[in-house]
């Protein structure tokens, strides 16, 4: 099994004729993702990789029926309009790889999504991959690389770092294990699906036996995840690492969302909250895979 996407998920690509949209669509299709069509205003009637392109989502839905998910490869200032179009068309899962989305646009998109029972991944998400089934976004690189890194197995991965999403999955594969689904939640200050919303999904997935969380200083995402555990909404083993633990308060680290302010979002507060909830917090990324192996051996 997997969470959010699998081999049966039907996908629409918004901005499919752009450089990134075209290249990433090729990777998604090669991996096995069921990309039915794409949308680029003014390019309707053309094809990319033999995939039909439409001028609007309305035209695409009329031709193919309502799709399960959309991935939005458009520049940051255009993201809100594209996401609004997807939500209003009835699509229930939207992946947003774009970065530098205006903050108020993100707030409006997430508010509209919640009102319509739509899940957003991102903005600034590298994407997600369900091993051997499907991938959406920038994640994976090429079909061959994705096949080597994202081996099928019992470990769920979620991360605030796009690059580390892949690195963690690779280290797990090198240890002889594999993943169910690996997810980059996004690197923007406001994201549609945080750790706290993803953990219950892994809880429901029968094949996920342990979850790895790659966190960072800044925001209270990890503290919220700890609260989910304390409330009993996630009871499987969780192995966590918090990046940026040596940086002083007020210093930006890696992403726009990774800044410590007024004692909130510190590494200490995150580690304490997670440990109190029963999670295993490791001191370095190199310790993640061995910790997972020990848990599974038990």
Describe this structure in words.
By secondary structure, the protein is of the alpha/beta class. The chain has 2 domains: 1-127, NAD(P)-binding Rossmann-like Domain (Rossmann fold); 151-298, Succinyl-CoA synthetase domains (Rossmann fold, 3-Layer(aba) Sandwich), CATH 3.40.50. It has helices at residues 19-31, 57-64, 76-89, 103-115, 143-149, 162-174, 195-204, 221-230, 267-277, 288-297; strands at 10-14, 34-39, 47-48, 51-54, 69-72, 93-95, 119-121, 127-130, 134-137, 152-159, 179-184, 210-216, 238-243, 280-281. The strands form 2 sheets. The protein has a 7-stranded mixed sheet with strand order 3-4-2-1-5-6-7, with helices on both faces. The chain has a 7-stranded mixed sheet with strand order 9-8-11-10-12-13-14, sandwiched between helices. α7 runs parallel beside α8 (221-230). The longest helix has 14 residues, at 76-89. It is globular.
Quick structural overview:
The protein is of the alpha/beta class and 298 residues long.
Query: So, CATH architecture of the largest domain?
Result: 3-Layer(aba) Sandwich
At the third CATH level, what is the topology name of the largest domain? Rossmann fold
In CATH, the homologous superfamily of the largest domain goes by the name Succinyl-CoA synthetase domains
- Would you report the number of β strands? 14
Helix content: 25-40%
Query: For the CA atoms, what is the radius of gyration?
Result: 19 Å
**Overall outline:** globular
Which strands sit side by side, in order, in the main sheet?
3-4-2-1-5-6-7
Number of helices: 10
């Amino acid at each position: 099994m997997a969470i959010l996407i699998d081999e049966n998920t039907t996908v629409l690509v918004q901005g499919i004729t752009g450089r990134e949209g075209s290249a990433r669509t090729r990777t998604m299709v090669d991996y096995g993702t069921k990309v039915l069509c794409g949308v680029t205003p003014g390019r309707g009637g053309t094809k990319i990789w033999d995939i039909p392109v439409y001028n609007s989502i309305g035209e695409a839905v009329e031709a193919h029926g309502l799709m399960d998910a959309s991935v939005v490869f458009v520049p940051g200032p255009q993201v809100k309009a594209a996401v609004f179009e997807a939500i209003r068309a009835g699509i229930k899962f939207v992946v947003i790889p774009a970065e530098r989305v205006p903050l108020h646009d993100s707030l409006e998109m997430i508010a509209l999504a919640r009102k319509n029972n739509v899940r957003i991944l991102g903005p600034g998400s590298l994407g997600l991959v369900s091993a051997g089934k499907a991938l959406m976004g920038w994640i994976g690189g090429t079909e061959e690389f994705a096949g080597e890194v994202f081996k099928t197995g019992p470990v769920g991965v979620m991360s605030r770092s796009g690059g580390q999403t892949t690195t963690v999955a690779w280290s797990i594969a090198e240890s002889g294990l594999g993943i169910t689904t690996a997810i980059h939640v996004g690197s923007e200050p406001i994201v549609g699906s945080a750790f706290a919303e993803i953990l219950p999904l892994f809880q429901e997935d029968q094949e996920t036996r342990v979850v790895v969380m790659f966190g960072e200083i800044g925001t209270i995402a990890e503290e919220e995840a700890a609260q989910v555990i304390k409330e009993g909404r996630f009871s499987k083993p969780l192995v966590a690492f918090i990046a940026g633990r040596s940086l002083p308060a007020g210093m930006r680290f890696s992403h726009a969302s990774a800044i410590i302010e007024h004692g909130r979002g510190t590494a200490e507060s995150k580690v304490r909250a997670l440990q109190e909830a029963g999670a295993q917090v490791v001191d370095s990324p190199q310790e993640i895979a061995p910790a997972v192996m020990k848990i599974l051996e038990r």
